Amino acid sequence: MRVSLSPVESAIPPSFGPPSTIRVWAATVIGVLLACGGGDSSGPDTPQAASVVVTSNIGAIIDVGGTAQLTAVARTSGGQVVPDISFTWSSSNGTVASVAGGVVSGVAPGTTILTATTPSSVQGSLNLQVVQADLPLVTALQADAFAATLIAALTAGSKATAQSAWTECGSGVSTGNITEIKGCVDAVQSSAAAAIDPTDRVLLAVLALYANEIERLI
Prior knowledge:
This protein is elongated. The protein contains seven helices and eight strands. Helix 3 packs antiparallel against helix 7 (198-217), helix 5 (156-175) packs antiparallel against helix 6 and helix 6 (178-194) runs antiparallel to helix 7 (198-217). The strands form two sheets. Strands 1-3-6-5 form a four-stranded antiparallel sheet, with no helix packed on it. A four-stranded mixed sheet has the order 2-8-7-4, with no helix packed on it. The termini are far apart. The protein is an alpha+beta fold. The protein has three domains: 1-43, no CATH class; 51-131, Immunoglobulin-like, CATH 2.60.40.1080; 135-217.
């Protein structure tokens, strides 16, 4: 029975001869191995970034002098996250905001585009607005005792909604999250507009005056 030999086995001479013969045989074997792909040397392809998404931990608005942590995530064309990417960060308007290592700092009121770039030049960006907010005065308004009295006098359903919104103003100030403060203002104004109980309508109308002032300050 005829036995089929592998490409490498076929390249082995029946007997070794002088050194020149050995060198020829060795070169032949190396050529066969390279043509076969080297056996076990192959591995999975490295995922290639096709898109980048940039997000901020406190939204797309920051105060002058405030900071935010940016996060960039690269994905393949199939949506798979590409790990261990080192991004280069830039700001389209350094007079408005600067960025280094993914940390953005507000410099002056205005807008800028923050961009994260992969080593293969794939980019993602975030539009950022920098505002001149008076956060200490917002804190004073949010903590005002009369505002707390207004909320305490509301009916049960209205009280829970108003308290949750008002607390959001406080947490927004503590983290420099202007977007969260705007959400608080919108929620109070909406509650005042939707109130049905006559007493609640009056109380929330006064609380909305506080919200309106906070909105002016940011």
